[in-house]
Design a protein that fits this description.
The protein is mainly α. The protein contains 6 helices and no strands. The mean pLDDT is 75. This is Transmembrane protein 220 isoform X1. Keywords: Membrane, Signal, Transmembrane, Transmembrane helix.
């Protein structure tokens, strides 16, 4: 792989900060033992340079986070479907299952893009640009979370 671009490095750093914060927020969660390793692995993988000589360890860690993220995503989807909590397409961040579905989905997409970026260079340059633009798409949570938090906060103030 060629050297990572500034966009890839910036997106990886921002996602590492988001996953690090998410890992720290899991300490009071009843099933922290599932979510803390997921977010911690995703944070470490995003902090690592994809072209580092010890890249095989990071690729294994990224694969582990990808598999764990997929497992937890499907666990939350099944739990939501079984109990009818919020619905698959719900964006109501006040519901735990929606937050967990969104978080595990972010980990899965980030690990997939990280694995694509750290793999051998693809002969088609358009595929390589897709990975960079995909990492750029990960900026969405930084705009989405504050808006949803603000709306949720205003709703909670009205209840008081």
């Amino acid at each position: 792989m060629t050297a990572p671009t500034k966009l890839l490095r910036l997106c990886s750093l921002l996602m590492a900060l988001l996953f690090g914060y998410s890992a720290s927020a899991q300490l009071d969660d009843p099933d922290w033992y599932l979510w803390l390793p997921l977010y911690a692995c995703a944070c470490i993988v995003n902090l690592a340079n994809p072209t580092a000589p010890d890249g095989s360890l990071m690729r294994k860690m990224a694969k582990l986070a990808l598999v764990l993220g997929l497992f937890l995503f499907f666990k939350v989807v099944v739990e939501d479907g079984k109990h009818g909590i919020a619905g698959f397409w719900s964006l109501d961040m006040r519901e735990r299952v929606v937050r967990e579905k969104f978080g595990s989905g972010l980990v899965v997409s980030s690990m997939f893009l990280h694995l694509q970026a750290s793999s051998s260079p693809h002969p088609n340059r358009r595929v390589a640009r897709f990975v960079e633009y995909g990492k750029g798409f990960e900026f969405v949570p930084f705009f989405f979370y504050p808006i949803v938090s603000l709306v949720s906060w205003r709703i909670m103030i009205r209840w008081i």
